[in-house]
Amino acid sequence: MRRLPLLALLLLTAFPLRAEEAASACVAPGVWADATGQRLEGAPLLRRVAEQPVVLLGEQHDKAEHHRWQLQTLAKLHAQNPDLAVGLEMLPRRLQPVLDRWVAGELSEAAFLADSDWRGVWGFDPNFYLPILHFARMHRLPVVALNVERTLIARVAREGWAAIPEAEREGVGLPAPPLAAYRERLMETLAAHNRPDSAPETAQRFIEAQTVWDRAMAERIADTRRATGRAVVAILGEGHVDHRNGVPHQLDDLGLPGSVVLLPWDADRPCAELDGRIADAVFGLGPSREPVEVARPRLGVQLEAAADGVRIGSVLENSVAAAAGLSAGDRVVTAAGIPIRRPADLTAIVQRQAPGTWLPITVRRGEANQDVVAKFPSE
Known about the structure:
The protein is α/β, with parallel strands linked by helices.
């Protein structure tokens, strides 16, 4: 029997938000809604979602509430269907043995973080993800490393996919061409990173890099589904899944259609983004109650791990880096006299900078080293 598309099923139980809820947020806290903001009954929604082969839980990596929502949604799906596997964007394929040892109960938290080089490989607070990892271990759910090395993605952005020898592609196959809307969004992203006048070949390589990234994760999801028969619940960035671009599009090409996209919806997120296409369903979050942190110093660069060290992929307009004269393509040699061998090295140094201080940085530009001084604002 042919299944109805998930969105059509969801609309069977949709009903409008109450007036007082609609007045306070696009999606009321604690409420599921479809991609237009129409309220959905949570229990029947999650029962249907749990029957699907792939569920993609998007996130903004630095928001603790997004990760709490992911854990709660994973737990509810597991209650409906205990035959799950969990996919993580956060780690590359080579670290699968570490995840296997974690699930088997062979590693402490400290050992897992050390063996996975979490801070160097991913960088975002591990406390956001450890509850999900503990849930998977408690229930002995396979956890799958979905990603590839950042160096591969950075290399595609520099050289193009065709220039990468097959033996150096980490097993990633030929991606499906991106949809036109996805290409347009990626071009907007490129422009937002202070590269609006990029040459056509640069833009094309940037789009190829993102598409290869999506394809790599989709392949791991599809392989896990076929090898285990389990439903795969993937934890990954929203940009890889919204509007069924990115990973869902690559899954369709791999013969695994019907993946479900679920997103958390922040209280202050613009209602206009509920365009009817952004996801299969969204969950309303309340206003953030996280303690206000002192703003961390920001250099304003996008870093790329490369074979010869750490390169600057782009420089944000009006940033500390832009004022210092740093440029895309610079290879960072030292900061505060300390050698920079990976992006995490520079990030750690910048985050230790006090307001109003100066940071000397040496970069390799062309055939010569160049010294610059990054001046951080006093407030």
